[in-house]
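The methods section describes the discrete structure representation at length, but only in general terms. Each protein is reduced to its one-letter sequence and a matching series of backbone shape codes. I believe one specimen quoted in the main text would settle the matter. An entry of this sort, consisting of the sequence and the corresponding backbone structure tokens, reads as follows.
***
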Amino acid sequence: MTDFLLKKRPNIVLIMCDQMRGDCLGIAGHPDVKTPYLDSLAAEGTYFPNAYSACPSCIPARAALFTGLSQEHHHRVGYQDGITWDYPHMLPAALSDGGYHTEMVGKMHVHPPLYRCGFQNMTLHDGYIGYYRNPNAPAKEHQLFHDSYLHWLKCRCGYDADVNDAGLECNSFLVKPWPYDEMSHPTNWTVSKSIRFLEQRDRSQPFFLMTSFVRPHPPLDAPKDYLDFYMQMDLHEPAMGDWAHFEKERVQAGRMYDSPYGTDDPTLRRTAMAGYYACITHMDHQIGRLIQALYRERILEDTIILFTSDHGELLFDHGLFRKVQPFQGSIRIPFLIRVGKNLIDYPQTAICDDLVELRDILPTILSATRIPLTFPTDGFDLIPALYGKPHQQRDFLHGEHSGGNLSNQYIVTKEDKYIWYSQTGKELYFDLKSDKIEVNNRMEDPSVSQRIKYLRNLLITQLTGREEGYSDGQNLVIGCKPVTMLSSSHSPDRGNV
């Protein structure tokens, strides 16, 4: 615990979005996306350019955040709805037990859908999740029953109003402006409800507010002004690797509106990029509303603000769309922390290049709030890193995502990345220092063969003893049946992980 760094127990605002790429910030140097409020937070705080989601889809990523565990230990190594969250220790519960007023607004995506995870109050909107729209689902699990926003939208815009009224789908590259007034958009609603909490909170306690956006996850339905702004721009083209050959896959799936291979139509591709960026800037402006509310309440400088995403979006890089693949667009996430000026006298480090992951949020917040960490986690406390103090760091991160032929494993460091596809044995190696957008696969380059062998051996060690049988301790084993949920905890030789 590093509570000696902070003068008093802070308020905590954790802002999380869904499916935002790590490079889609002004401070990250993106040539097109405008994020003035997030850049402002970063300018007064610490930006982490080497932040990742080890299992890049909604549910396993949120499990890492709430438990502080790696995917091997929270068991979710792929996407699967309907599995109960039975973890004995989670961040909201620890904060509630530690004397914090805890509030959740927006997306949770847990099961059962009204499970609190320790929050004292929840005002939910999970987006459009097909699993909970099944007409055969139990009534108490149906999304129209438990989603606060959907009920509110029907009261505001009419009984038939729904989030997909623009004709879009929740995993599609199709774009259309939000069909109702801007203040009824789920992004605005999430901030409005967060502000209401700030105004009505128990002022005798510090608070933990999680403001969790569905966007920029599709549907790409930002209000018209935001979409028009990007449609008028000359947007930079997606990255295209010399290794990316998906012609067969595109013939089979490339014209589907939700294809993981995107679209070959240049107009649809450009419109999707504009729609995605529009959702980000719209969200950024609403985050500005939240920051201003903290200022009006005279608590901005008594508050720690964290911003991150559960995973990224490939956005046509290498001819791919959506997430779960092990490339930077999918696994690299935005991550920044701003500590209020009333909490510490040290100047905050502007950029920290530590290799960080969602599991680090739990120990970081508990450290800042002076709540003892009494249960095991795999994350590191980042509070010392904000001020240049000695702290734990990882040299590499093991990531993965299971699901059919796309099942993959990867080892990433600050400098490079090794990828292995478990069903085909395909391997890729990228030098991220010289090739940040992964254009050149250097697997056949003899000058890096020893480095590749080293990273492969790290992965072999990480997978040794896993129930799928991916490693025999000496080699990677191709073709083992992937699972999305491990049946038991696996404890690799974590060393510096």
Residues 493-497 have pLDDT under 50 and may be disordered. The radius of gyration is 22 Å. The CA atoms of residues 24 and 188 lie 20 Å apart.
